[in-house]
Design a protein that fits this description.
The protein is of the alpha+beta class. The chain contains five helices and ten strands; from the N terminus they run αβαβββββαααββββ.
């Protein structure tokens, strides 16, 4: 089937950036990657333990002793530890990333920027079944950021199916920035007495997170993600301008969905959809807060973390349609 691609560009974007974005689209035109995988219980067990959740569901057994039974629905977002990248070491980027849908140099700094997931009602993916993933490139959009920096926004669409048919559509956005021209200045968050927002009424709840180097390593291993910003402090600081190793965007996304699930009367509930956007990074060793607010049919979650100035700012936000 003929694929349609978006070729959007600001008139201020340089010709070479537009060309690199179009080159990526042309390389992937009419290409669709199809993979099959058994959704084994071990991955879900180890993810839940990495998230410090000894039970997958309230009525489930202790995952330190048992793996989830075949037929158990995958919790929302847990598909992210399946269908992990397949590449030989020499096929990865210098930063350790899978470059299957990456533009060419100099756009080598990748960050998870956001996306959207839509679940098919009545057909969850389940542990023990074989699933099919179909992946295609949707767009590569050259843009100018707020600071005047050129970037390319890449969107990939993944469709997951089981024996009953489509179960989930997962659209993911990555932002690619140019490599730094020299060593980045060393940054550390300033000391501050400021605190993140707290719940103001019964419609709001909060939950604090503190990721460590160990939790980030375990999540990288589960997702077979070699991106050095998640485990190499020297690389994160000198090569990419971060103040420490970076919390994975998908890890935050799963924690947001788990928070939503925990406030439902039925924690087996699966949402209709989630739209989310990452606006600033979170770092290991720094506490950050999720603020959940229930609305009519929609739940919004914002993650608040420290900026370099020490103030709290929203680094990720999502709207979940119940």
């Amino acid at each position: 089937m003929q694929q349609s691609f978006r070729r959007l560009a600001s008139t201020n974007v340089s010709a070479i950036t537009r060309r690199l974005a179009n080159d990526l689209l042309q390389r992937a035109e009419n290409a669709q990657v199809v993979r099959k995988q058994l959704l084994d219980a071990n991955q879900t067990q180890r993810l839940s333990l990495t998230l410090n959740r000894p039970r997958l569901y309230r009525d489930g057994g202790d995952l330190r002793q048992f793996t989830p039974a075949n037929g158990t629905p995958l919790a929302p977002g847990y598909h992210l530890v399946y269908f992990t990248p397949i590449a030989l070491p020499e096929e990865l980027g210098n930063d350790g990333t899978d470059i299957s849908f990456s533009p060419s140099k100099p756009f080598t700094r990748r960050m998870w920027a956001g996306g959207e997931m839509k679940w098919v009602k009545g057909n969850p993916l389940r542990i023990g079944e074989e699933a099919i993933e179909r992946t295609r490139l949707v767009s590569a959009e050259p843009k100018i950021g707020k600071t005047g920096e050129e970037m390319i926004i890449v969107r990939v669409e993944k469709t997951f199916e089981n024996a009953k048919g489509p179960a989930l559509v997962d659209k993911r956005d990555w932002v690619f920035r140019t490599a730094l021209s020299g060593p980045a200045p060393l940054l550390d968050a300033r000391e501050s007495d400021n605190q993140p927002p707290s719940p103001q009424d019964a419609s709001q709840q909060s939950r604090d997170f503190l990721q460590t180097a160990v939790s980030l390593f375990r999540f990288s291993a589960l997702t077979f993600n070699g991106h050095k910003i998640h485990y190499s402090r020297p690389w994160a600081r000198a090569a990419e301008g971060h103040r420490d190793i970076v919390v994975h965007g998908p890890l935050n996304l799963i924690n947001m969905l788990d928070f939503w699930r925990d406030v439902q009367e039925d924690d087996y509930m699966i949402p209709q959809s989630i739209k989310y956007r990452a606006t600033a990074p979170f770092y290991a060793g720094e506490t950050y807060r999720a603020l959940l607010e229930k609305g009519v049919g929609t739940t919004s979650i914002k993650l608040w973390g420290r900026s370099n100035s020490g103030d709290f700012r929203v680094g990720m936000l999502g709207d979940i349609c119940n």
